[in-house]
Amino acid sequence: MTAPSDLIFIDNQKTSTGRARRMIDLKRWDANTVVGWLEDDFHHFGVTIEHEANAIRNVSATAIRFPWTSCGFAPESLKALIGKTMSPRCSDIGRLIEMRQQCTHIFDLTGLVMAHATRSVPHRRYQTITEDREILGWRNHKSPVFAPTTITLLQDGETVMEWQNEQGYIVDAASGHQQALGRGFREWTESLVLEQGEYATVLRRALLVSGGRAMVHDKYPSAAAMDQPELCYSFQASRRENALRVNGATKDYADSPEDMLSCLHTRP
To answer: What is the rounded CA–CA span in Å between residue 185 and residue 182?
Structure first.
């Protein structure tokens, strides 16, 4: 595939990203408690929801590994969920709390934990695998542009969804549906049955996160230096200057998925 003519190469550029993995574990701890853990190359978080009937009685989160110093304070923002009614659709978390005031990944995990709390299934494990992507170049010095790739979602070791991805669009292997990753994506997932919508939500975030493998994050002293929109807790204008880089926080699980989720037997 030929790179578009408006792309440049910068000193952060790599030739390819390698295989990216993300692991999510959801577990019913007891009759009124659900625990979730998430890990990828850049993040390791845990969330606990305590509930009574359909109401959230308490929520807590633990930040084990994260890119910016401010991320460790993000879990406090989840307290706004206490007293809210749970939903079986994980993306409904966006109707209960404001995403941009949360850590994106804790926010996503909390939605998955909430949805799991409404199911009778005691345990679920997701793994996403984004295959090696060639980096064609960079747009505006900060946005990598990738060659096509395939991303696969495993649930409890079985493939349940697979996409082809190219230039901001995905094609679902099973249905042939083509969908932009940006505007309209949530509306599409909410038109799907619950489990398919959850699968698509998990895959989208994993695909977006996998692009981080194109970058050397330790070259950015703060979140402000990355010059990104105010899409999450650490990138808010009020925090980004003081959101300092946690050097050495990135790991590479391309060939060692068995090393992920080391905190599974603890409660956040």
So the answer is: 6
pLDDT in tens, 4-33: 544 444 454 555 677 999 999 999 999 999
Give the position of tokens 């804790």: 106
| pLDDT higher than 60, residue 169 | yes
Distance between CA atoms of residues 268 and 256, nearest Å: 24
Structure tokens at 114: 């909430």
**Pick the residue with more confidence: 140 or 254?**
254
Q: If you average pLDDT over residues 89-100, what whole number do you get? A: 94
- 169-172/158-166 β-pairing: antiparallel
Cross-strand bridge partners of residue 29: none
Element (H, E) at 157: none
Q: Inform me whether the pLDDT recorded for 35 exceeds 90.
A: yes
- d(C-alpha 84, C-alpha 97), whole Å: 10
Q: How many CA atoms lie within 13 A of 230 on its CB side?
A: 9
| Radius of gyration of the chain from its Cα atoms, rounded to whole angstroms | 18
pLDDT > 70 in the chain, percent: 93
CA atoms of 238 and 254, how far apart (whole Å): 35
Contact yes or no for 162/174 (Cβ under 8 A): yes
Exposed/middle/buried for 3, CB within 10 Å: 0-12, 13-18, 19+?
A: middle
Which residue, among 155, 158, 40, 38, has the nearest Cα to 107 in the 3D structure? 38
Q: With CA atoms as reference, report the closest residue to 15 among 135, 132, 143, 133.
A: 135
Distance separating alpha carbons of residues 31 and 102, to the nearest angstrom:
27
Dihedral, CA of residue 68, residue 91, residue 139 and residue 224, to nearest 10: -30
